[in-house]
Structures are given as structure tokens and as C-alpha cells.
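hey so i finally got around to running the thing on that chain from the lab meeting. sorry it took forever, my laptop kept dying and i had to restart like 3 times. anyway pasting the input first so we r on the same page abt which one it is
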Amino acid sequence: MSAQPAFFESQAIRRVYDEETETWSFSVIGIIQVLTQQPDCQGARKYWKVLKGRRQLARRRLR
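ok and heres what got predicted. didnt touch it at all, straight out
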């Protein structure tokens, strides 16, 4: 696996290429940081934590 940053609107997003499966894996936190225009990753981490919690709560309600 090789790590190479991807750039979106001049901000780096962490990504890793898996040569075995020929797929890219991107950092969810990095994507959220760029899309929500967060100055650092801490705000993006909090956003992702809240989003995951809401998703889990919605799944529990569907059962």
C-alpha cells in the first residue's frame, strides 16, 4: 500500500492505494474537513462522530 495525498480545492485529503485490489481508500475525516470547510481535523472528527451516532440511532429505530 502506498499513501499519496489527493488535493481538492487546494486542501490535501489522505488516501492509500492498495495494489493488490487496485483500489483507493480515502480518509472520511479528510473529506468531511474539506466539504464542511473546517480549518482543522478536530471539527471534522466531531462532525463525523455526531453523524455516526445519528446513523446508529436510526438503525436501532428501524429494528
